[in-house]
Automatic annotation (TrEMBL):
<dbReference type="Pfam" id="PF19274">
    <property type="entry name" value="PI4K_N"/>
</dbReference>
<dbReference type="InterPro" id="IPR045495">
    <property type="entry name" value="PI4K_N"/>
</dbReference>
<comment type="similarity">
    <text>Belongs to the PI3/PI4-kinase family. Type III PI4K subfamily.</text>
</comment>
<protein>
    <submittedName>
        <fullName>Phosphatidylinositol 4-kinase alpha 1-like isoform X2</fullName>
    </submittedName>
</protein>
<feature type="domain" description="PI4-kinase N-terminal">
    <location>
        <begin position="265"/>
        <end position="676"/>
    </location>
</feature>
Length: 685
């Protein structure tokens, strides 16, 4: 099996080059002639081959042949017996396939429940293993399949629970329930548990017939009603000499747990889920179950975590649960998830880790939303809500181990986004990775900043004719918001100093790239970064012992602020909001206009940028005007000032206006008589 797994890995990584190996894998599977035999004998190598083929199909690889599909379909038709581990893995892959496969799985489940797959001399544990695996990996089904399956599952419960309506509560009724428990076999209880789990899965997939829905709710409620008497019973009420008593009690408790989970599922699939009473019921059921599981730890906690993931995904998939308007159900899932992670961390860290990783991996599973006929791609609500939930959990729990488990799926998804990706998805991913990075955990912080920096610079270098202007503009606008989120959230002095240096370095690179790019002023690229720079410099002491490299970065920042006309104008005119997207015009003409308007007004850019410039000037001005490091780039700046240079015009009036503008930019602290330095800071238009 190890060799087949390695081959599957190679095919998935390089499908175009190695997909021709799929027919060979199909040959390792049991062939139709063997499956049609009266008593087919399937070897372990056959099972391994079927697992490999199903795994490849579940990855949605573009297979031109139907042989692989028929291998799985034929095997499903002939499936009668196997081992639990095989069922679990196999159905995990099948659950990712189409409705066609789901229909066959439902048919097999109904046959197993009715006993049609078992001969008199065959161990029924085989069917139970199959049903248990299906309850863990339930496929996509049609509504008719769901109704048919529920009808069969109802026969797994005692006949007195199949009538709609509720008995009058009394002590005698409850004692009768306890007494009748002794007549229930362990096998019957196990079937009831699996039946409740299967009903819960059906509720997640389709909308049930109203009468069937009332029936299953009635059964679940009767089970929960009897639970009170069961738990309150005394030792003398039971036959303590029964050697199977503990096993049967354990099985009954699992039935109660499955019934409670079904009731939880029914709450948010109910027509009345928007009502406060229904939401409160959901919260109380889920909260109570979580408290019991975390208190006991061990198997109860593992079972809860196994069921909690699909429950969370189902809540996130609800149409009225959106990122902008999360209801009580979403909030309760978030709070309970945090409680389980915090309380379960010390008791069963491995299970909690598996839960976190599984929830994060669901992002990758749902990331492929496919092409939609040339229209803008619509991102599923479940994807946006799960992304939001992971960020909320990471921020609330504040454990680096939790953030490190959530972060890889998020940062990989963001890295794969480009200008063609839906804006809502890109914005959501950027917002959550920025929030996690702002917690100050080294790994997530550094990966986020490196990726965002690279992404921002790459968009500046993209030629305007290679991407849609609107999409490119949105991509540029979303990244500065992430930079600002990190600047506001970082608390550690060391990381703030590191981030300050990185942001100033980015500004220098942005200014250089923008200035050298034909047809652009650079203000629309540098301006959006200024609020983040202002925030990260808000606690900066310019009178401290500052490294020369940081001084040079501040010098570069002010140079480009003056160059692009981003500082408030000299004349005290009102700051009006101006659209920041530029069009391709002559660069020299644009810079001349910016320089003059920097003196005369009105302000051409977003007013938040002007306010950010003022905040930056309060801390960095002494560094800029007193540093000898300005002389390092004398040759470069003289070229810019030279009338024969590419950008220069030799206009002395404009140069004078720029000198005055630069003086205003840094708070009026520059001595205009120091012309030998100031002239080196001019970008003559």
């Amino acid at each position: 099996m190890e060799a087949l797994n390695e081959l599957c890995d190679i095919i998935e990584q390089n499908p175009k080059q190695f997909l021709d190996k799929l027919p060979w894998i199909c040959q390792q599977c049991p062939q139709p002639k063997l499956l049609c035999a009266e008593s087919p004998r399937v070897s372990q190598s056959h099972l391994n081959g079927v697992l490999a083929v199903t795994r490849i199909l579940s990855r949605n690889l573009d297979t031109s042949q139907n042989d692989a599909k028929f291998v799985v379909l034929d095997f499903l038709q002939a499936l009668r017996s196997s081992i639990s581990a095989f069922y679990f893995s196999f159905l995990g892959y099948v659950s990712c396939l189409s409705l066609e496969f789901g229909t066959i799985v439902v048919e097999l489940v109904m046959m197993s429940c009715c006993g049609e797959t078992e001969s008199e001399d065959r161990d029924q544990s085989i069917s139970m293993a199959f049903l248990s695996a299906v309850s863990q990996h339930f496929p996509t089904i049609q509504q008719s399949d769901g109704d048919n399956l529920i009808t069969v599952l109802l026969h797994q419960f005692p006949a007195d629970e199949l009538s709609i309506g509720y008995s009058k509560g009394s002590k005698d009724v409850f004692l009768h329930k306890v007494a009748s428990f002794e007549d229930e076999s362990i096998e019957c209880l196990e079937k009831q548990e699996i039946a409740f789990k299967l009903v819960t899965n059906v509720l997640c997939k389709v909308k049930l017939d109203s009468q069937l829905y009332l029936l299953v709710r009635s059964i679940a409620k009767r089970q929960l009603q009897s639970m009170y008497a069961f738990l309150k019973s005394r030792r003398q009420d039971w036959n303590t000499q029964d050697p199977l008593l503990k096993t049967r009690v354990n099985a009954k408790l699992f039935v109660y747990q499955a019934a409670a989970q079904m009731e939880i599922e029914a709450c948010f699939t109910s027509l009345w889920r928007s009502m406060k009473a229904c939401k409160d019921l959901f919260i109380s059921l889920l909260s109570g179950t979580a408290k019991i599981a975390t208190a006991e730890a061990g198997q109860p906690l593992r079972l809860l975590l196994t069921r909690l993931k699909p429950l969370i995904l189902a809540v996130c998939a609800q149409p009225d649960t959106s990122v902008s308007s999360q209801g009580n159900m979403f909030e309760s899932v978030f709070k309970i998830s945090c409680e389980i992670i915090v309380s379960g961390w010390a008791k069963d860290q491995a299970s909690v880790n598996a839960f976190i990783v599984g929830l994060a991996s669901s992002i990758r599973e749902r990331y492929d939303y496919g092409e939609q006929d040339g229209r803008e791609k619509q991102v599923p609500d479940v994807l946006l809500n799960v992304i939001q939930l992971l960020a909320d959990i990471s921020v609330a729990v504040k454990k680096p181990e939790v953030a490190d488990k959530n972060f890889p799926s998020l940062i990989e998804s963001l890295d794969e986004c480009d200008v063609s990706s839906p804006h809502s998805l890109r914005l959501q991913l950027l917002e959550v990775v920025s929030r996690i990075a702002s917690l100050g955990f080294e790994k997530s912080y550094r990966q986020t900043v490196v990726l965002m920096r690279r992404s921002y610079l790459s968009q500046i270098s993209v030629e305007s004719n290679t991407s849609a202007p609107e999409s490119r503009s949105k991509h540029i606008e979303t990244l500065p918001a992430g930079f600002l989120t990190i600047a506001c959230g970082l608390m550690k002095t060391k990381l703030r100093a590191d981030y300050r240096h990185r942001l100033l370095s980015l500004c220098s690179d942005v200014g250089l790239a923008s200035e050298s790019k034909s047809g652009g002023s650079g203000a629309e690229f540098l301006g959006p970064l200024l609020p983040a720079v202002a925030e990260i410099c808000s606690d900066f002491d310019p009178n401290s012992n500052v490294e020369p490299s940081l001084i040079k970065l501040f010098r570069n920042l002010w140079f480009y602020i003056a160059l692009f006309g981003l500082a408030p104008p000299i004349l005290n005119t009102p700051l009006s909001e101006v659209k920041t997207t530029s069009k391709s015009v002559n660069s020299a003409g644009r810079i001349s206009t910016f320089s003059l308007r920097a003196v005369l007004g009105p302000y051409m850019w977003n007013t938040q940028w002007a306010l950010a410039v003022k905040r930056i000037s309060q801390g960095s001005t002494p560094l800029v005007v007193s540093s000898a490091k300005w002389l390092e780039d004398e040759f470069e700046l003289n070229l810019l000032h030279n009338s024969d240079s590419l950008r220069g015009t030799g206009n002395k009036k404009v140069a004078s206006a720029q000198r005055t503008a630069l003086s205003i930019v840094v708070g009026g602290r520059i001595d205009m008589s120091r012309n030998s330095i100031i002239q080196r800071l001019q970008m003559v238009a």
